[in-house]
Design goal:
Layout: E1 3-6, E2 20-23, H1 29-42, E3 47-48, E4 54-55, H2 57-62, E5 65-71, E6 79-84, E7 92-101, H3 104-111, H4 114-119, E8 124-125, E9 129-137, E10 149-152, E11 155-156, H5 162-165, E12 176-177, E13 189-193, E14 197-199, H6 206-210, H7 212-222, E15 231-235, H8 239-250, E16 255-260, H9 263-271, E17 276-279, H10 285-291, E18 298-303, H11 308-317, E19 318-326, H12 338-343, E20 347-350, H13 358-368, E21 377-382, H14 386-395, E22 400-404
Parallel strand pairs: 15-16, 15-18, 16-17, 18-19, 19-20, 21-22
Antiparallel strand pairs: 1-2, 3-4, 5-6, 5-8, 7-9, 7-13, 7-22, 9-10, 10-14, 11-12
Helix pairs in contact: 7-8, 7-13
Length: 407
């Protein structure tokens, strides 16, 4: 038995919520009654589109175009425009976006700098930090359902290279980015692979769920090495640096010292629990060590700034056998004292993105067990005020900037 839901003009505006079935085979009255009851039960929860997809019937009938923040052409600036609802391919989910975070990558794209000119192929919808409600699932999707609140993993992997096939997807040599290489999440709706959707099983502020991408960077970096009882130096008090410091303390570090040039960001770091916040324009990390009674240097270093001076100073501040995790990306090549690295027998590890999906599990467990990262969010805007939101993010004076896509 095959059937196809259609709409009848007899019902006027109610055609969005009442189906008229066009029977392709003869169906007994009892079967028609059963199918109508099934549709009634599914209404509001999602129903089959007839293509192997599932979406709410009322939503399906009403939405054709959505607002999106796009890079229309090379050069500075973004534009808020109308675009068709993203197509949902097999294995995809369509998400009604609730909140998005502005990342440093987005600032590069908005400015249209050299990296953006080389990397992007406009027109493209930008944004990769987001959360939202699933409104449609493509064929073959079984572990994500309509109505789920999800955060998105922004790195898309090939699934076929050596690392992917070994389960090390974060090391995929063909990684592509949502909002960089394909349309992103600064829009009312975004479609992406269901395999990249992290379902939020417990109640969570959508703004916090939207920053699981940068939170994951912080968790991946902070937990690269054992933290219990260690003294930790974090260079760079941006949102990711502060979250890394918070994770370090929560994971058992004894002292966590963070450095930056911004008094505002250092004040935020103090508020959120670091042991010492040092403005390196006026103070020295060695003074902080002395104040804390440290005798041999830092056990773990987390370089989050991309500053060559910060990395060089961190190497001098480490104890013998110390371990450094580097997330910050310098704007150009840098030189370091390799002799000091060798003679101190330091370990330096590069960090990129999140381990898929071990880091995501760790993030959820940290929040479930009591870690509160909401304080790192300092600015909230509606997406129609995106220019103000980008200006706040670019100022470098606050924490995480969130754009709401609701209302």
């Amino acid at each position: 038995m095959a059937l196809e839901p259609t709409r009848s003009s007899l019902f006027g505006d109610r055609s969005a919520t009442f189906p008229v079935f066009r029977w392709q085979t003869r169906v007994r009255k009892a079967d028609r009654t059963r199918l109508f009851r099934l549709w009634t039960a599914q209404r509001g929860k999602g129903a089959s589109t007839g293509l192997g997809h599932t979406r709410p019937l009322a939503w399906c009938a009403k939405v054709t175009h959505v607002r999106a923040l796009r890079k229309i052409k090379p050069g500075p600036g973004l534009e808020l425009v109308d675009v068709p609802v993203p197509a949902v391919e097999p294995g995809d989910v369509l998400v009604r976006v609730k909140a998005t975070g502005i990342c440093g990558t987005d600032l590069h794209i908005e400015s249209g700098d050299e990296w953006a000119r080389k990397t992007l192929q406009p027109p493209i919808t930008v944004g990769h930090e987001f959360c939202g409600e699933v409104v449609e699932i493509g064929s073959g999707v079984s572990d994500v359902a309509v109505g789920d609140l999800v955060s998105g993993e922004g790195h898309l992997v090939c699934g076929r290279c050596r690392n992917c096939r070994a389960g090390r997807r974060h090391l995929c040599i063909h990684t592509r980015g949502i909002g960089v290489h394909r349309d992103g999440a600064f829009a009312e709706y975004v479609a992406f692979p269901a395999a990249n959707a992290w379902v939020q099983r417990d109640p969570i502020d959508p703004a916090v769920a939207a920053i699981f991408d940068p939170f994951g960077n912080a968790v991946h970096t902070a937990l690269a090495f054992p933290m219990l009882g260690e003294d930790v130096l974090v260079t760079g008090a941006g949102p990711i640096g502060i979250m890394a410091a918070m994770v370090s303390r929560y994971a058992g570090a004894r002292h966590v010292v963070i450095t930056d040039h911004s008094d505002e960001r250092l004040a935020l770091a103090r508020e959120l629990g670091v042991t010492r916040a040092v403005n390196i324009d006026r103070s020295d990390v060695a003074d902080a060590q002395h104040e804390l009674g440290m005798r041999e240097g830092f056990d773990v270093g987390l370089e989050m700034s991309g500053s060559s001076a910060a990395l060089r100073d961190m190497i001098t501040q480490m104890t013998h056998g110390g371990r450094i995790a580097v997330l910050g990306i310098p704007s150009s090549e840098i030189s370091v004292d390799v002799a000091a690295i060798v003679l101190k027998m330091l370990t330096i590890k590069g960090i990129y993105g999140r381990e898929m999906f071990e880091t995501w599990y760790e993030m959820s467990v940290l929040l479930e067990s009591g870690l509160d990262i909401s304080g790192v969010i300092t600015d909230r805007f509606h997406y129609t005020d995106y220019e103000k939101a980008f200006a706040a993010a670019r100022s470098g004076q606050g924490g995480k900037v969130i754009m709401s896509w609701e209302g």
